[in-house]
Amino acid sequence: MISADWVLPIDAPPIADGAVVIEDGRIAAVGTAAALGSGHHYADAAILPGFVNCHTHLEYAVYAGFGDALDFGDWLQVHIARKRRLDWDDTVAIARLGAAECLGSGVTTVGDASYSGAAAVACAELGLRAIVHLEVFGAGADGLARFDELHARIEGSLSDRVRLGVSPHAPYTAGEELYRAAAALGLPIATHLSESPAELEWLLAGTGPWQSLREFLQPPLGESGIRRLARAGLLGPRLVAAHCVQVDAEEIELLRAADVAVAHCPRSNALLGCGTAPLTDLLAAGIRVGLGTDSPASTPSFDMFDELRTAVLTARARERRPDALTATEALALATLGSASALGLEGEIGSLTPGKRADITVVGLAGSPYHPWEDPTAAVVFGGSPQRVLATVVGGDVRYAPGELRWREVQQTATRSRSLMLRRQSTPLRGVVPLPPR
Length: 437
Hints:
By secondary structure, this protein is an alpha/beta fold. The protein has 15 helices and 15 strands. The N and C termini lie far apart (48 Å). Mean pLDDT is 92; it is low at 424-437.
């Protein structure tokens, strides 16, 4: 039994002086403390569903600042080169930090795109719920040999809590045959679609800044990735498409008709200069949209509070309306919306009796939004990882402030970042691009 000044169920109105009852890892009851009892009370706080971060790369947790302000193509070269400087143990240590930072930001579930599979190991160790989509690259179905290798490596880390998925990386690095073979696995699928203008230039005509990368890219398609996958019958409800920034009305309709979910990553899109996704148009079309932080390779952190605020700011700036995205709508995106995007809305994303007890407690004492006026706005605009009082996954407290274990995780990952820097044989700017492997 836990209680707080407010309980924010997401699928029901906020409850003043609310309480949540947890039994056997699931939510047994939600209501007022007067009716249910107080149990462990969190003062000056709100209880809400754990955030669902529907697009992450936990293995890039220490990559912040590398290649900042480079064009997307140049940034991609830096990104490919730097991750090849790490061995398996380094990558696991970094993924462990990524999982810890998500838990410390109130995140209880991630939809991760994993280059090495280390994310599965880290999530299993730290108790973070996850769908780990193993990334595959190449033209044909033989690209799944990489998937089989990674799957075998992480088999012991998979469970009901850490589930397996597949990720054909993007239409410019994965061919139609590989997408088809990945879909045939029957697993959750994640991919990157229509992220940047440079991507579209390459796919449409083989022109633009990516020509220097042509040796490592799939041939131009003569059309966007969304249109090609739609024409091939490869869009569907198991697919989560990250970004979808450079999309037109026809492509939005193609996504809607196929029930493709979209992972909205506004900070990453802004920092890489890719643009602002048409969030309100996607939502108006009835597309399942969730919120994702992407990774510190393109975004400074896994901070879901910063992502929430950026989602609100960019939506309002794009539409030039203060009601383009409200705090209530944003919080729903980061919880039930993201859960729906991952196909997990029946299990997580709201404080609903019967669902798994994935819960975040946010304290607002000392923030500009306390005393409360609107508890949802207070959480969205006044929350931060430093204000997270508890992160609960399946009824187990997986994060609480001041735990020594998190300090150890940070120190280990920092050593891995230092190793990466020391292993540089050439400066990161201007490195020779290396193909994904």
